[in-house]
């Protein structure tokens, strides 16, 4: 067994005890799963007919459209949030006080309001007929603020000498930011930025509240409009749609991890952040783990 | 201002609802998250696997989907007729538990190896080492990330409002359905959340300061 803080390689007695725990633990877990399956089967949720609905081409088409709609909103929000993130990060580091204050106020305000509330307000207030743009705009505002903080942390992590050397060469402020600081910050923060994009992807599901026909909204429509033997196929729909979401998010997280590993191999001045960073729950990164920059294994987390 | 004065009772109910659901689901998340972290560092493979599976699955599921699961699937398996408040708190708690688990786990790995080795050489068991030596020391490093996790939880509780739990988002929706101007309503709701999140980060900063020990 690998070395751990908590236990040595087990001796003969511990091996036996661990096996007992393993058996008991798996039995309990299996019993819980079995209970769930039996109960669901009793209610008829595991009938063939409940799952057969996904063989209809209409429903398949619905799901395909919904995936496309989700990806569309995600794409817009990703681009929007990154652009806004760069602008806000630069503004927050500006030498002009009013610019700095305005950016800080904007970031602090929209980061502490639930994303759902922002999206809803944008939708009701300005874009009632364009739910996709309302969703994308809401997501961009919130995630832009988070990305701005990520980038700012990255820029601050660039060794001072870099900036000083650039100024010494006679580069202007804009040049220093654009060609020295930003590229290094983006490179260091790429895993964190992508992890935040995973959060953005998950948050597109808030579109169902403003009736944007994305994946979750479609799931609700399918489940509540199709009746199989007098029952609504909520369980099967949720399982199918849930797997699609998990698959999409895992793919994106895998990308973040891959980039992080690749970045570790390269020998440059600043460390890569870890891919797990945003502790955000769904709409919600409030603290950014800028780990790898100042501590081992995700423990040191800067809370802004 | 008029919006608030005209509908102060609803605003107050919404505010209290947000505080309530945040409090209940925080407790669920904390207890469950600690348990899961224990699973993930334990020497028993099935439990470790379960912990990992839980974290991977729940961190990659949109919270909104989890709410659907809790409102439409869980009542079929367990007791039907649970209140929306309870279901919402459970969904939030289960979701946040995976984040708490990861924070605690990374906190555990910052405790110097020698500490646990010393504990073991004194003859302490796994649970004793975890409970008396490692967790108390891990607590200190875990508090800052926990603070942001719980602030995130507060904000996520807005989703519960879309599932007919009384809280601040419900107030916003109600008033904008009645045709009030969205901007002041939005600002008042924002104000409500700011109170809660500021109180929370203040509390955590206090905790952090109290637990501060020179190392």
UniProtKB/TrEMBL annotation, chain A:
Q: Gene3D superfamilies attached here? A: MetI-like (1.10.3720.10)
For the keyword Nucleus, the answer is no
Every ABC transmembrane type-1 domain range: 67-256
* Coiled-coil spans in chain: none
> Per its UniProt record, what SUPFAM superfamilies does this chain match?
MetI-like
GO CC term, one of those recorded: ATP-binding cassette (ABC) transporter complex
Swiss-Prot/TrEMBL GO biological process terms: amino acid transport
The protein's topology relative to the membrane is: Multi-pass membrane protein
Q: PANTHER family from the xrefs?
A: AMINO ACID ABC TRANSPORTER PERMEASE (PTHR30614:SF21), MEMBRANE COMPONENT OF AMINO ACID ABC TRANSPORTER (PTHR30614)
Spell out the protein name for this chain. Glutamate/aspartate import permease protein GltK
Q: Which organism is it from?
A: Streptomyces hundungensis
From TrEMBL, chain B:
Molecular function (GO) terms for this protein are: transmembrane transporter activity
* Keywords linked to the UniProt accession: Amino-acid transport, Cell membrane, Membrane, Transmembrane, Transmembrane helix, Transport
Which segments does the entry list as coiled coil?
none
Q: Which family does it belong to?
A: Belongs to the binding-protein-dependent transport system permease family. HisMQ subfamily.
- InterPro entries for the chain: AA_ABC_transptr_permease_3TM (IPR010065), ArtM/GltK/GlnP/TcyL/YhdX-like (IPR043429), MetI-like (IPR000515), MetI-like_sf (IPR035906)
Q: Which domain of life is it from?
A: Bacteria
Which parts pass through the membrane? Answer: 15-37, 49-73, 85-104, 142-165, 185-207
**Its membrane topology, per UniProt?**
Multi-pass membrane protein
GO CC annotation terms, alphabetical = ATP-binding cassette (ABC) transporter complex
Ranges for the ABC transmembrane type-1 domain?
15-204
Where does the protein end up? Cell membrane
Major localization class: membrane
Q: What is this protein called?
A: Putative glutamine ABC transporter permease protein GlnM
